[in-house]
Amino acid sequence: MFTRILIANRGEIALRVIRACRELGVESVCVYSEADKDAPYLKLADRAICIGPAPAKESYLNISRIIAAAEIADVDAIHPGYGFLSERAEFAQACLDCKIEFIGPTPAAMARLGDKVACKNAAKEAGVPIFPGSPGAIEDPDEAVKVAEKIGYPVIIKASAGGGGRGMRVCHNEMTLRSNLQAASTEAQAAFGNGAVFIEKYLEHAQHIEIQIIGDKHGEAIHLWERNCSVQRRHQKLIEEAPSPGVSREKIQPVCEAAVRLIKQAKYHGAATVEFLMDNKQDFYMLEVNTRVQVEHPVTEEITGVDIVKTMIRVAAGEKLPYKQSEIKVRGHAIECRINAEDPARNFMPQPGPVTKWETPGGPGVRMDTHVVTGYVVPKYYDSMVAKLIVHADDRTQCINRTARALREYNVEPIKTTIPLHLRLMENTDFRKGGVDIHFLERLLK
């Protein structure tokens, strides 16, 4: 096991890793920007090191400064959390070049599965169902039109190197395809430093279902079943739940097994999520692979009892997976609500500023993952998520009722948050029935 781990992240996930390190008997070193210098969670780390000004490119995205902090603190390993540098193969390589273990996949595995075109090819080889579309990156509008006519409209243009909705365009005809191809490429170049885009068949009505995988350095990998992430806005998830309502274990089993084959084929170790879209016939098509721990990992932890963050650290240290696939059982139902400092009534405008009141829920089956306390100042420079409410119960109906109860216990002032929207969703008839598609929230907010 490692002696000392540097956490190359901030906020809720930094605190999550600090706690995992403490339980493993490992020292934690947390880096921070000038904007986060007063963050309470820094006091829980064994050491905290400032790595630069508030803008992420000068701190949390600055590889040389993070590596310098790691060398100063004499750490064995770096945990990247999610976001920032967590899916940058060059960061993983920089860690290895400096003889520091990267708690995640190898640069080669990350590059293969992180690039959507390369990942599609790997999935095809592993027998994972994929969307029909262009075999690789596409630049010529005429070629794009030929592909679209072959697979049928609507189609979607996607950035090969990114996610989160950037570099993504839905096209229902030739005119919109031609006009959007260059725009998507330009956006992808600006967001990810890579303008490559490709085309896939687009499902008008689909559910977003993802499979949680974890693998070790000994060639083993297991799945921790699925999560449903269909409640989303502009491709950003707001609610995640597990197991997925309306999908039988018999239907999801082969999808989970296919995801494991892909991870093993890529010689991948660490946590990964293989994301799929499911159509009205409950046929699955792979979207992408996230080569890091997900924001929504607590949902899976609640239904399986597996501590994903501690397991990531253990397998990075060379230990074998402590679980066999046959031991992973689904227990009850779990829901996660992402609490963002945003005002839904004003088109989700970010709400940076001081938090003068922060009263959170509790009680049976309620888990709060947050770095916020009364007096905390939400910075304007980073993602607006301030907390994750995770609720577990015996079944989905009880879980929804418990989540609604917990949401009513929040008392946050003066910033606006997405809490009222989450409560509205818990009370929505269609959501309670299950099976809502990825456009459900867009329709609800019209």
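(ticket continues) Second input and output from the same batch:
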Amino acid sequence: MRRKIIAAMSIIGLLAAAGPAAAQGPSVAQRTAAPPAAAAQQTIIVSAEGLADPKAPQYARDRGILIDDLRRDARRQAVEKAVGVYVDSQTLIQNYTMISDRVLTRADGLIKQVIKESDPWLGDDGFMHMLLKAEVYVAGVEEALKAMSREQRVALIRERGDPRISVAIFAADADRASTVAPRRSQIAENILKERIQTFGYRVWSEEHAEKLRVELMARSQLEGQADVTLSVSQQRASDFSILGEAKFKTLSARLPSSGITISKYVLTSWTVACVDNATGQEIYFNNKVPTGRSWNDEDVATRDIGQLIGQEFSRDLFEKHLSAPSRIFQLQVMGLPDYDAGELMRKELMGLRPVLNVDFRNFDAQGMSLFEVDFTGGRNGFARIINDTMVRPLNAKLGDRSFRVVSARGDLVRVTYSAPDGSDLADRLLKLPPASLAQASPERIRALVQSEEAMEAVKKVNPEGVAAASGKPATPASDTVRAIKNF
């Protein structure tokens, strides 16, 4: 049974030469009028897992309805992940009914094409499963959210926070560049900082952040809390760094009539780059060799250079990068016992709301196994988001704390797996309810789970959701955990 499920899952991972024809017959989305041309240009690729309770009474009469509902749920999950680009998971759950009515019910019209669709299979966990890879109109989802009244959507769009930008502009002597170190140009930097502040963004001091980091690290080493302090200090770094260098050449001429020597400052070249400090990606870079520009005063020259560099940057440059639908990070997992467990973990990750796509790159039973994850979580508090939206659901599924985040820095996350004595990870992943249900909304649980047996299984991984779905109050322990998480 394990090999059959692994084989079914592998269908979704084979993307070469994939196209709309990969799905069986024309999809509903293909028969539906496409969104406007502007929206059609903005799409994302999403992998999702559809679920259905095969023991529901309505399926006993017609198994075709089961497959239709399974496919419909897979498409809704794909669009729900696209909604996650704009709405964080907690807000989505709190407003699930409204978002479902306004957005998820339009799933067919928001899916441009179905790229891959696995055969449905009955899992050892008692649910029917179907994996789907689809191209979703991001702009269509955004427009659907915007169609809500201001009161309805004011709390829904994700608060990304104003980006923090540091500036460092250097001036160098072109004739002596190899022997004299360039010096910081405060005039040029201040001109650029003024422009950044007109965007409503914050200017950040890397020097002060580094000094604070060193102080906190020294203090934490005395207290034995280096990992905690490092995580805190990293959040104080700037989101972007603008780096530039201008090279000047001094031209002097002596006037024969007066004997006065006149000096001109000529700009020979300047370079500028902008780095995303969360990933190390250079989002902008440029080199220029200007002609016909000279100044009588060096301070005036550096002031104008600050203005020239400032013209290279606009609010749109940063907002376009910040509003990218997702980021890709490397997930290293230590302790996976066998390859099947790795494949099944990929399937579990694929079902989680913030995960758009997952590739299982490398496996090493004696070391780190590598997954590449396309993730919609925000930039701030990245380690916490990973822990809350990926690790907690996996542990809720397993009923323990087998998975632990040990590092989350930049675009690299490390997680360890420690197996309880005698347990088989692949067997547990197969037989227990999907990790995606650990954070499912009560509305989704009510719609999906129809039999008492399935409800009891889901209750083990999401007691709060099942209690809310059945109209019963949550336990005090659950209230405590929720209060801590929301603080």
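Agent notes: Residues 10-40, 149-160, 225-235, 475-487 have pLDDT under 50 and may be disordered. The radius of gyration is 28 Å. Closing as not reproducible unless the customer responds.
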